[in-house]
Write a structure and sequence with these properties.
By secondary structure, the chain is α+β, with helices and mostly antiparallel strands. It has one domain. The chain is built from 1 helix and 5 strands, in the order βββαββ. Strands 3-2-1-4-5 form a 5-stranded mixed β-sheet, with helices on one face. Strand 1 and strand 2 form a beta hairpin.
């Protein structure tokens, strides 16, 4: 499982792999990344950052 930061009609969503609904929606990608980092650290998983077109652009690993 990974935590994805993806575009949303209201800004940027933080969403777990396979989830139907966003965990959180933030106005900026930077805010969404901060939320995703916290969640990923707690769940010991990865973050996957997508660009405005929804394409994968970066990731971080918090499995330690």
């Amino acid at each position: 499982m990974a935590i994805h930061i993806m575009p949303h009609e209201e800004g940027w969503q933080v969403k777990s792999s396979g989830a139907k609904k966003a965990y959180k929606v933030k106005r900026t990608q930077k805010e969404a990344i901060e939320v995703a980092k916290t969640v990923a650290k707690n769940q010991k998983t990865d973050t996957k950052i997508h660009n405005r077109k929804g394409q994968f652009r970066d990731c971080s690993n918090y499995k330690k």
